[in-house]
Each structure stands twice: as C-alpha cells, then as structure tokens.
Amino acid sequence: MPIKNDKNKEIISTKGLWAGDPHAPVSMVFYGDYESEECAKVHRVMMKLLESHGKKVRLNYRHFPMTQIHQHAHKAAEAAVAAAQEGKFWEMHNLLYAHNRRLGAISLREYAREVGVTSKNFLPDLVESKYGWTVRTDLLEALDKGIRSVPTLYINGEVYDGRLSQPEISKAIDSACSEVKRKRA
User: Fold this and answer.
1) Which of 28, 36, 48, 53 is most buried per CB count within 10 Å?
2) Above 90 in pLDDT, residue 185?
3) How far is residue 3's CA from residue 80's CA, in Å, rounded to a whole number?
4) Among 138, 171, 176, which residue's Cα sits nearest to residue 157?
C-alpha cells in the first residue's frame, strides 16, 4: 500500500526510481546505508558499471540504514526520499555517498540546496520524520528477504554473492545478459 503524506499525496518511494536504461535486460537492486564506507565503495562501483554497461543494465537503490552503528543513516535516507519528491533522488543519493562522513541535519539541508530541492519544508520534514515510514518500508522488505547487513546486491531478482568489485559484478551482468537472451530465443 502506497504511503500518503499529510495532504494525502502519495510519497514517491525508491522502489520505482531506476538509473540507467528502463528497458535494460539486467536489473540490479542495491541495498545500502549512506553512512557505511563499504556501501560508499560499492556505490562508486555501481556508478561505473552503469556507465560502462550502457543499455544492458539499470539500477535501483533501497534503504537499509544500520542505525545501531550509524546514527545519521536513517535521516540521510529520509533526505534522499525528500529529494525524490522533487525528482532529485539520484543527485541527492550521489551527494550523500560523496559526503558519507558528513550527514548531520545542516549538511543534509546544504546538499538538498545543492541538488536543487526547493521545498521550504525540507528541514522541518526531516525533523518530523515525514519520510521515515518510506525508509522503514525498504528496511522491512529487506529483512523479509533475509538481508541482515549491507551492502547487498540483487541481479535480476537473485542475490549476488560474489565479490562486490567492478570486474566481478561486470562478469555477473554479462552472464545475466546472456541468460536473458537465451530465454528470449
């Protein structure tokens, strides 16, 4: 069931936000935490793979803030969802990973301005946790899938359990692409 905000307007969640070719044969879903160094490394790999694999791959990001060890991860995820409401999710997402050691409320507001978020309620919405349930929905779905830590990557609906390096994921993308072609033939 879609989450509604106080004006009964549907909140745009990350579930439908994809980077890359919408018709790509390979779909990757990356569960991550903005404050995690390991997730930041995998994020950089994902961006390179999107660039190098062109029309072969698309990427979706889901939130899995590990709040027990990262006190700013949940609010950073909420900030990304807030930016998504203005079509600025990927810009905010990239900035959060670029500055994953500086994710306090004032920094989040600066990043929102930098990416072009115009809402005057950005900071009040963060304080009120307006997008908290949207982030929590990603987290609960991940837990239902058995995810217990991040980074976690799915390729065409299957858990990827190899090394999270560009060469290894690239091989998995090529393999998934071949498999899709075989099924279509």
Assistant:
1) 28
2) no
3) 16
4) 176
SS3 assignment, position 110:
helix
Does pLDDT of 124 surpass 70?
Answer: yes
Rounded average pLDDT over 1-16 = 69
At a CB cut-off of 8 Å and minimum separation 6, what does 79 contact?
92, 96, 108, 111, 112, 122, 126
Residues contacting residue 35 through CB under 8 Å, at least 6 positions apart? 65, 66, 70, 71, 72, 73, 76, 100, 101, 103
Structure tokens at 111: 């990043």
Confidence of residue 1 (pLDDT cuts 50, 70, 90): very low
Distance (Å) of CA 112 to CA 3, 82, 102, 168: 22, 9, 13, 34
Q: Considering only CA atoms, which of 70, 89, 73 is closest in space to residue 81?
A: 89
Please enumerate in sequence order all residues whose Cβ is within 8 A of that of 100, keeping only pairs 6 or more positions apart, or say none: 34, 35, 36, 37, 39, 40
